[in-house]
Amino acid sequence: MKITAFVPMKLNNERLPGKNTKPFTNGKPLCHYILNTLLKVKGIDEIYVYCSDPTILLYLPKGVKFLMRDPKLDGSQVKINEVLQAFAKDVPSDIYILTHATAPFIKPETIKEGIDAVKSEEYDSALTVIKQQDFFWMDGKPWNYDTKEIPRTQDLKPLYRETTGLYIYEEHLIKEENRRIGEKPKLLEADWMEAVDINNPEDFVIADAIFNHCIRTGGKKYE
Fold it and tell me: Are the beta carbons of 6 and 47 closer than 8 angstroms?
C-alpha cells in the first residue's frame, strides 16, 4: 500500500504575498514546519511539494520531492479539487495525505492517527476539525438554541468545523468521485493551535505570536 503526502503551494499568493516562504520572527520559512512534521510521520512513502515555481526548491528539506505543476493551476478561480485531481494523475498512490504550509502547527500524531484510520478500511477518509459549542445564528435567527430558554454552552450539541489543514483520502475518491472526503470520514479533533490557518496578514501575525510565545519558548521545538 503506497501512501503519498503532498503540499500544494503557490508563490504568487494574493491575500498574503509570499506567505508560504515567509519566515516567522526568530523562525524559519512557513513551509518548513509542515514539511518537517510530515518527515517525522512513519508510514509515509513519499512527500511532495506541488508547485509551479522551481524557486521553491531552495526551501525544501532533505527527503521532500519537488513536482512541477501547471501554472494554470495557480489561477484565483481554480478550485482545490482541480489541483488534487492533477496531482493524483501525476503520482499514483493508494492513499493521499493533503496538507498545507498555512497550517504549520499540525502534529505528527494527528497525521498518524488519520493514516491508521484510513488504512484500517473502517474509514475512507480523515480530516482535521475543531469542536465548537457556541450560540450560532443563521438568517437572522438563532440556529441551535431557543432564546427563551438559553442552555449552558456545554449542553449545546457540538458542531465540528473543518480546519482545512489536513485531509487523508483513498485514491478512488479523488480519481473517480472528485472528492477528498468520502462517506465514512474519520474526524480528527484538532486543538486550537493545530486549527490555525494562515490566509491573510492578520492570520500570520497571530501564528507568529503563537510560534514565539507558545512554541519556541515553551520547550517544543520545530527544527
Answer: yes
Query: What pairing do the DSSP bridges indicate for beta strands 185-189 and 125-132?
Result: parallel
Greater confidence (221 vs 72) lies with 72
Q: How confident is the model at residue 217 (pLDDT cuts 50, 70, 90)?
A: confident
pLDDT digits (tens, 9 = 90+) for 94-135: 999 999 999 999 999 999 999 999 999 999 999 999 999 999
Q: Are 111 and 98 in contact (CB under 8 A)?
A: no
CA distance 172 to 169: 8
| 4: helix, strand or coil | strand
On the question of pLDDT at 203 being above 50, the answer is: yes
CA pair distance 222, 34, nearest whole angstrom:
9
C-alpha cell at 118: 484510513
Taking Cα atoms as reference points, which of 77, 58, 76, 56 lies closest to residue 6? Answer: 56
What CA–CA distance (Å, rounded) separates 86 from 43? 23
Q: Which helix (H) or strand (E) holds 170?
A: strand 159-170
**pTM score above 0.85:** yes
Task: Inform me whether the pLDDT recorded for 220 exceeds 60.
Answer: no
- Round to whole Å and give the CA distance between 25 and 67: 29
Name all domains of the chain by residue range, CATH numbers in brackets: 3-127+160-215 (3.90.550.10)
Query: What gap in Å lies between CA 65 and CA 215, rounded to an integer?
Result: 27
